[in-house]
Amino acid sequence: MNEKTLKILEYNKIIDMLEQRAFTEIAKKMIKELKPSTNIHEIRERLEETKEGFEAVLRWGNLPINISYDLTDTLKRAKMGFTLQPIELLRVNSLLKCTRQLKEFMNDGNKQEICPIIYEVVDSLVVIKGLENEIETKILSENEISDRASEKLFSIRRSIRDKNAKVKEKLQSMLQTYSKYLQDPIITLRGDRYVLPVKAEFKGSVPGLVHDQSASGSTLFIEPMAVVELNNEIKELLLKEKQEIERILYELSQKVAMNSDYLEHNNFNIGYLDFILSKGRFGLDLDATIPEINTNGYINLKRARHPLIDKEKVVPIDIRLGEAYKALVITGPNTGGKTVTLKTTGLLTLMAMTGLAIPVASGSQVSVFKKVFADIGDEQSIEQSLSTFSSHMTNIVNILKEVDDSSLVLVDELGAGTDPTEGAALAMSILEYVYEKGSKIVATTHYSELKVFAMEKEGFENASVEFDVETLRPTYRLLIGIPGKSNAFEISKRLGLDNSIIENAKKKISKDAARFEDVIQALQNKTILLEKEIEEVEAIKRESLEIKKELSDKKFKLDNQREKLIRKAQEEARRILQQAKFEADAIVKELTELKKNSEIISLKQAEEARRKLKEKIDEVNKNVQEDQVDEFEQLEDVNVGEEVFVTTVSQKGVVLSKPDSKGEVQVQIGIIKMNVPLNKLKKVEVNKKEVKKSGVTNIIKQKAQNISSEIDLRGQTVDEALYNLDKYLDDAYIAGLNSVRIIHGKGTGALREGIRQALKKHHHVKSMRMGDINEGGSGVTVVELK
Which range is the signal sequence, renumbered to this chain (predicted)? Predict the structure, then answer.
């Protein structure tokens, strides 16, 4: 890419802004090396990364990347056999910890579906938990190694502490002996040796080695002979400590070297993750979107904003090029936004080719160009010297040598700085040459001749920057399809120029030129109104499409959910019935075997088999109960003698009474009479031929007809009694009894206790109590059923 173009369009400022969003040194390095690509596949991959960066930052705020430094040099040193310093090992540990946290973070939830590129990068990272734990255990800080780093180090440091204590104890006793010779009654250190501060005049009174003196020379720091040997031992221990620390650091460095390939991979890819997230953060800060990319030279920037202008102040513009026309000629007053339009077009194109989101509305398109050229001057003066013209023309000459059909050419004030007639002719000739080469062109000019040229020449289109005559200020809006009007007379009039001067000036211009300016003004007014109407229509259209899409998505989801629920219900029903049949057959077979071997099989085994069969029957009844109920219609009123379906027990019965004040109806089911709320009854269709009842329902009705409200268990063993009790409670519950009496007698109390323990755990029992005197006293237990 042309370096001069990058500089003119201030691409480097975009890179600087992007770099500020990065945390790691590697990501910052990647950003500094970032250049626009001319490969559409590479660009689309880069934009896909940016899109995931958007998604990750929006959903999760950030990934757990808490390292900033690049460990490339550190890992190289370890591979070369150097001993790493504690601070370097701590940084390696931070990399290891960051790797583990990233893996844990991305493996939580459905993040792979949301951000597949980021997930793949994190998935490739290698966790080295053993090395992480070892460094964390042995290196406490950049200046401290843990006592527990090795047994030898622990032993050496314990010896040092003991020796230090002895030296201090010895010197403490000397403080009393030599107190009159000391400057201060304190123990101090000089060169890792404990000394006493002795007054210079008493040097001979304290035998020992002089290690230092004060700045004034009045104090000598003397190591008494009595502690010299102890200090020597401490010195030796300190040297051993240093050697052991060196050994520990070298050992850890070797382990880092052994894992250097994995660590280098992790180091680079964590930086790469930060690079992706940086692009996402940058795009979000700009309120940017991901554009569509093409290679046919088509640019359609909707509500484009220059990224270097405050987004609260910049006026969005629409820029189209390359489809109906390949060259856009922009006219209008100075400081009206022509140059900004050029720079916006060029800079957003470069950003998109770099793989960055751009500040435009969704649906915008950018083409990939092999070359982008720009000749944009910042001079806004009316008077331009010959040297300025020469400078611009030199640049134009260089551009013309390289343009082709895959180039974008941006030229500001083409032909300015020389005679207007010659400048206009030269500008038209240059534009024709570039157009014939197949390049896409955006050019700005003041020359009226170029307005007519753009209107007449095929493949060219006029555009102008809007100017508000009432406020004498530009609106910075770009109007494509109409040339700019000079507005010189209107501006002069607003500024207070005498009207007679203005009228005289009008007479000096040709009638054709005046009519042309009037046509431009009328065209401009109509275009503004039309654009406003189009914007309103587009807004309504977008809203309608969004509503349509939302409703379509909801319908699709509901249809899918409905189909899934139906399929799931059908599959579950088939599974339940198949499983129930299989288990029922197995239990019946088991019961048959029990019957054959009744003399040797215990009652507990029989009870267990019977319980399994009952549970399976209950389960099937429960699963089909709702479907069974749905076969009957809801009742609003009943008549005495009418047959109804009672949903609470899934049985048919006959109505014996009208609803009472509580809304309950007395219904007879077999020999049982019970009160049932009206809303628990369903209407039964009476057929001429009543189907014979069989199966589970028939069994339940037979039980209900023969059930008693009490059971006598006296004389039975505990096992026999519990078997019969459980069977009886099941039958009583099915029959709808509210309470029953369990007769167990008084006796030794063993049977009574066994029955009461069983009742406490039974699923049909709501409560129980000992019988009253008239009910049998302690020989009877009264049970209330659920």
Answer: none
